[in-house]
Amino acid sequence: MSPSFDDADYHACARATLSFFHALDTRRYEDVAALMARDGVWLRQGVELAGPAAVLATLRARPAARATCHVVTNLRVEPGEAQAGGEPLRAQVYFYLSAYDNGDEQGMRLVAIRDCCDELVKTPQGWRISRKSSRKHLPAE
Fold first, then answer.
1. How many degrees, rounded to 5, is the angle at CA 129 between CA 126 and CA 133?
2. Torsions phi, psi of 11, nearest 5?
3. Residue 133's closest CA among 57, 72, 53, 45?
4. What average pLDDT does range 44-70 have in this prediction?
5. Topology classification of domain 7-138
6. Could you tell me whether strands 126-138 and 36-44 are parallel, antiparallel, or unpaired per DSSP bridges?
7. Could you write out the DSSP letters of every residue in 39-63?
8. What is the pLDDT of residue 1?
9. pLDDT per residue over 91-133, tens digit each?
10. Which DSSP letter does residue 83 get?
11. Most buried of the four, 91, 105, 112, 121, by CB within 10 Å?
């Protein structure tokens, strides 16, 4: 790890990603949005959601009966390159995501396994997601 990226940063980055999905699955959408950087982008279902307000509006539009479960595995945090001139510290969190939902209302079902990357930036409020993206891993796209 770089001298400016320590164990506390490593764990805080992992916690940001894990907290995002816990808040999503427990329908605490304000907490999801708060984990996004001010100019953060979530590439979700082919649409770029830019900023916390767009994330919050999209999640609030979800059906009330929709339930999800996101299982994060194989998580690893990679520090970004050292930033010159006082630029914020950055990191990437790589992981697999098993996504379940009750879309057919017959109980939870596996929707997909995704290969994901969260790009994070260190802000005065803590680590925030600057870009969230994934691609379907299984079944293959």
1. 165
2. -70, -35
3. 45
4. 94
5. Nuclear Transport Factor 2; Chain: A, (3.10.450)
6. parallel
7. EEEEEETTEEEEHHHHHHHHHHTS-
8. 44
9. 999 999 999 999 766 788 999 999 999 999 999 999 999 999 9
10. P
11. 91
Alpha carbons within 13 A on the beta-carbon side of 61: 6
Long-range contacts of 124-128 (CB under 8 A, 24+ apart): 126/12, 126/16, 127/9, 127/12, 127/13, 127/15, 127/16, 127/91, 128/16, 128/35, 128/36, 128/37, 128/38, 128/40
89: tokens are 């510290």
Yes or no: say if 69 and 25 are a contact pair by the CB < 8 Å rule: yes
pLDDT at 107: 83
**Distance, CA of 115 to CA of 95 (rounded, Å):** 6
Nearest to 131 by CA among 23, 55, 25, 73: 55
- Domain range summary for the chain, segments of one domain joined by +: 7-138
Strands ordered across the beta sheet of 68-79: 47-50, 36-44, 126-138, 109-123, 90-101, 68-79
Looking at the predicted structure, is the pLDDT value of residue 3 above 60? no
Q: Which residue has the tokens 């808040």?
A: 23
Separation of alpha carbons 32 and 49, rounded Å: 13
